[in-house]
Amino acid sequence: MNLNVIYGAIFIFSAIKWGDWKNWGAYYPTFLFLMVGDLVYQFLFFKHSMWEYVPIGSDKSWAKHTHIAFLVMLIKYPVTISIFLGHMPKTAWKKIINILAWTLIYTINEYTDLKLGALIHKNGWNLWWSAFFSFVMFSVLAVHYKKPWLAWILSAIYATFLWNIFNVSQDILK
Q1: Distance from CA of residue 11 to its chain's centroid?
Q2: Model's pTM, two decimal places?
Q3: Residue range 105-126: average pLDDT?
Q4: Residue pLDDT, tens place only, 67-92
Q5: Mean pLDDT, rounded, of the chain
Q6: Beta-carbon neighbour count of residue 16 at 10 Å?
Q7: Where does the pLDDT of residue 1 fall: very low under 50, low under 70, confident under 90, or very high at 90 and above?
């Protein structure tokens, strides 16, 4: 089984079915924001990952964590942003429902990966932290779309919070 091909097909189908590609230019800065956030995490936590993608099935012949992480950034993130922002409701309570729905989608995806052995948690991270992370991430993405500067500030605060909660040593930095 090539899990990454299956995921790629699911996300491409979702992009075609539900993606708001006519407004892609408006969503592009938020996609870059999400991708830069993941790249910063991948760089800073290279020696102290909180999670790691594990190739399974035929993915073992070509993939490593880095390959899978880049596929997530290049396929999953743009599709997510196009659907998430493209279908963002106008009222506050419906926005919260949308954020909760996407949090659930990402949490179920991660739970599936954990059960299949395609992902492992490390250094105290767990599914509950991932669910909380997804909720914050989607909240901040919604903010970024309208007020990018505020999203950067909120992200810095949240990253500092996680760094301290998980008692990450400065020794992991070069």
Answers
A1: 13
A2: 0.93
A3: 96
A4: 899 989 999 999 999 999 999 999 99
A5: 93
A6: 10
A7: low
User: What is the pLDDT averaged over residues 30-52?
Assistant: 93
CA distances from 60 to 38, 104, 113, 119, 161 (A): 23, 28, 15, 13, 35
Average pLDDT over residues 99-119: 96
In this structure, are residues 17 and 74 in contact, taking their beta carbons and an 8 Å threshold? no
Rounded Cα gap, residues 18 and 86, in angstroms: 8
Q: How many C-beta atoms lie closer than 10 Å to residue 99's C-beta?
A: 21
Question: Residues, the chain, total?
Answer: 174
CA distance 52 to 136: 20
DSSP labels for 35-88? HHHHHHHHHHTTTS-SEEE---GGGGGT--HHHHHHHIIIIIHHHHHHHHHHT-
**How far apart are alpha carbons 69 and 131 in whole angstroms?**
18
Token representation of residue 15: 């992009």
Residue whose C-alpha is closest to residue 162's, from 121, 133, 126 = 133
Helix (H) or strand (E) holding 120: strand 119-121
Q: Which two tokens stand for residue 59?
A: 């993915």
